[in-house]
C-alpha cells in the first residue's frame, strides 16, 4: 500500500534541490531569453522591430560573431578526428605539412591512436607533458604533467575545486565583485558562502590587499571558515590586468592566511595595453621563492578565449600545485567518475600551449592570424571604451584585457523610479530598453555583482570590427533618447 | 601547524565518501604493472576503441570537415572526402552558426536535438519534443545534472539496482543523498523482484528517507540483462504508485545479444500504457555515443530526454545547463550522426553498413557484424567462465560486460582478510598479477553480502578470446587448488 503523497509528482519546483533554485547565471539569463524571442519574431516578421538583427554582446563567444579559428589548429584537429587521412597521399594537397607532422606526433601519444577511446582521467599523459612544457616556457619555472587535469572547458575544473573545498555553508570563498558568475553559481550549487571583496572602480578596478583582509576578517567574525581566494586575471567583467607587485602581495596574503589561491587565467592571451603583461600566479609564487610544498595554488586555463576563441570545443585544464598526494588522489577520483574530458578538446589545449614556432611552415600564417585577431580586439576595446565615455552619464574603465567593457551607468533618479515600478533592477531595466530599441544584448551588472547603488552593464568587444561603428551609433542614439526621457 | 584548506582532513566529506572502482585500485595497480613492462589486458571499462575496435569512417569524415571548413572551398576536397560526407558537414555547419568553435545553445544545437527527436519517434512510434532533449558531454554529465536537481539532502533517497554502474552511487555520495538499494536476482537471470523492491522502499521510508527516484539500467551494467516489456510495465506502475521519477539509463540499447528480449524504451512502454500513467509518470531517459556499435567514448556525446516534467522544473534544469555554457559541439555532431546515419542510397551507406558489419564492403552477404561479433564474444565468455571451477556466470544478454560469480573458498576469504583486502579485490589483484587481465571487483558495483563477482568486458578482439579465457582458467584452477585443495569432482 503506497504511503506516498497522492497526486503530487516527485519532481516539481517545490521539491528540487534548493541549491539549484538558489544559483543564478545572468550571462544566459532573462535578457538573453527575451532576445531569443525577439529574434524569432524577426525571423517571422522582419519588419516588426526597430532593428534588423539581434547583436549578442552578452557572452564571450567570439566565433559566433565571425571570428575565424586558427587554421593550423583546425588542420591538426581535423587530421586527428580522422587519422585514416594520414594514410592517403592526397592529404598533402589539402593540409599543410607541419599540421600533418603535428597530427602524427599527437596520435603517437594516444594509445592505439584511438581518439575515440576514453583517455586517462587526467587527460592523455603525452599531451599533459606538452602543456607542462608550454607552461614552463611561458613562466621560466618547471611544470609537471602530473599536476595537470584536462577538463571540458575551465568551468568543470572550477566546479571540482568548489566541490572539494566546500563542506557546508560555513565554508567561504573570497570572490571579486564584480565577478564572472560561474563562481557565485558554483558556490551556491555546492552549498558554500561567497565572501565578496570589492574591486575599486576609481582606480581602474584595483585589487587592494587591505580590502581582502577586511572582508576576510569580517567573514571570520561571522563564523565563516574562508578556504580560498578567487582571482580572475585578466579580469572578467572588469578587464584589468594585475601589476606584478600587486600579484606578489596577493600571494603573500594567501600564504599568511592559509588560503588556496584559485587563479582564473583564461584571458592570459588577451592583453591590449603595452604597459601591462600577463604573469601567471605560479610564476609569481615561484619568483617569491615558494615551492610546490609551500602554497596550494590552482591555475585555470581554457581554449575558449585568447586569440583562438574555441568555446564550442570545451577544452581547458587546471594545474594543481602545493597539496598532498592524498588530496590529489581525491581530485583524481572525482575526475574519474566522469571518466575523461573530450579528447579533441585535450588535443586543442596542447596546441594552444604549444603553438607553431619560428621556422615551422605554418608559423607566418599562424602569426598573421593571431596578431590580426589580437590587434583587432585591442582596437575594438578602445573604440567602445571611448564611445561609452563620450556619453552623458556613462563612465567606463579601460579594458586592459579579456573581452568585455563594464561601463557604469549614472542613472537619473527618474529612471531608477521607472525600474522600480517595473519590478526590475535599474541596470536590467536599462538593458531591456536597450535590447528593445536596438537589438543589442548586454548583461546587467547585477549579474556580476557591484557596489550597492551602482549600476553597470557588461558588453563584449566581440562583434566584427566593421559592425562596431553601427553598434556605437545605435547605442548612442538609444542612450541619448533614454536620458532625454529620464533626465532629472 | 595550522590546517591548510586542502589538507586531506579538510576536504568535503562527500568527496571522500565517493567510490568509483572502474578506475580505482585495480586499474591503478594495472597501470603500475604496465609501466613496469607487463602486458595488461584492460577489461575494466567499456572502452571499445581502446581494444582495437575501429571508428566508423563516415562520422569521422564529417567531423573532420566540420573541424576545417576551409577545406570545403578547396577544389581537391573530393579527392579524400566522399560527396555525402561533404554534404553532411555542410548540413551541420549550417545548423551551427559560428561552427565548431562557438558555444551552442546550452541545451545543444536545435537542429541536432531535432534529429534526436526524429530518431526517438522512429524508434518508439511516439512524437518527441526537441525542446525536452538536452545534449550533454556524455550521458554521465546528464545523470549528474538530474540527480543534483533531485537530491536536496541526506534524507532524499534514490533507488539504485545492485549491482549497478557506480556512477550512480558516486553521484549520490557527491550530492549528499541516500542510496536505496534494490537487489537484482542472480538466480533469476538478474531479474527484478518487486517484493524485494517494495521491501527496500518500506525500509528506507521507515528510516525517514523520502524515496524520490528509481534508476533502471537497461540493458544492465554490469549484469547485462535485458528487461521484458512486462517488467518495464510493472516498473512504471510501481513508479506511478510510489510517486517516483524513473531514470532510465538506456545507453546500451544497441547492444543486444539475444532475440527474446529486444530493446524497448521505457518511454515507449509508458505511452503504450496510455493515461493516466502516460501523462503523469515523470521519466528521464539517457543515451550516448560511447556504446552501441559506435563506441566513441572519447567524444563525450550524450543526451537526456525529459517526459512529464513540469515547465518550471525544466527551466531550472536549463539554468544549471547554462552555467556550463554548452556541451562540446563535435560531440553533438557525433550524436546527430548516430541518430541519423547514412541511409541506403547514400554514397557512404555501403561502406558504413559494412563497417557496422565489420567486414569488407564486398562481403556484405556474410553476416559478421560488430554486433554479431559481440554476441559471439558474449557466448564465448559466458561459456568459458561457466567451465571454470567455482565460477558461475549468467549470460550477457546485452551491454558490454560479463559479471561472473566467483565462489571463493573460506581459506581464500581469510587470506584476503589478512591482506587487508575485500575478498573479490584480493582475487582480482591475484588474477591481474598472474595473467595481466585487469578487471573490476564486484564490490565496485555492489553485491549481496558474502557473494563475490568480478566485472570484465566482452570487448577484447575475437581472436584473442581463446588465449584470454584459457589464461583465466589456468589462474582460477591454481587459485582454487591453493585455497581449496584438489577438486572433489
Summarize the structure.
Chain A is of the alpha/beta class and 488 residues long.
Task: Summarize the structure in words.
The complex is a heterodimer of chains A (488) and B (489). Chain A has 488 residues and is an alpha/beta fold. Chain A starts with 17 loop residues before the first helix and ends with a helix. Chain A has 17 helices and 14 strands. The longest helix of chain A is centred in the C-terminal third of the chain and has 27 residues, at 363-389. Chain A folds into two domains: 13-66 and 367-486, Aspartate Aminotransferase, domain 1; 108-352, Aspartate Aminotransferase, domain 2, CATH 3.40.640.10. In chain A, the strands form three sheets. Chain A has a seven-stranded mixed beta sheet with strand order 2-8-7-6-5-3-4, with helices on both faces. In chain A, strands 9, 10, 11, 13 and 14 form a five-stranded antiparallel beta sheet that branches. Chain A has a two-stranded parallel ribbon with strand order 1-12. In chain B, α2 (25-35) packs parallel to α18, α7 (139-150) packs across α8 and α10 packs across α11 (266-273). In chain B, β3 (156-162), α8 (167-174) and β4 form a beta-alpha-beta unit. Chain B has helices spanning 13-17, 25-35, 57-67, 77-80, 83-95, 110-124, 139-150, 167-174, 194-206, 229-242, 266-273, 277-280, 311-323, 329-339, 349-356, 370-386, 410-418, 423-435, 465-484; strands at 41-42, 133-136, 156-162, 178-183, 210-217, 245-249, 283-288, 302-307, 391-392, 401-402, 405-406, 437-438, 440-441, 454-457. The model of chain B is unreliable at 360-368 (pLDDT under 50). Chain B has two domains: 8-39 and 368-484, Aspartate Aminotransferase, domain 1 (Alpha-Beta Complex), CATH 3.90.1150; 94-339, 3-Layer(aba) Sandwich (Aspartate Aminotransferase, domain 2). The radius of gyration of chain B is 23 Å and the shape is globular. Chain B is of the alpha/beta class and 489 residues long. Chain B has 19 helices and 14 strands. In chain B, strands 2-8-7-6-5-3-4 form a seven-stranded mixed beta sheet, with helices on both faces. In chain B, strands 10-14-13 form a three-stranded antiparallel beta sheet. Chain B has a two-stranded parallel sheet with strand order 1-12. Chains A and B meet through α1, α3, α4, α7 and α8 of A and α1, α3, α4, α7 and α8 of B.
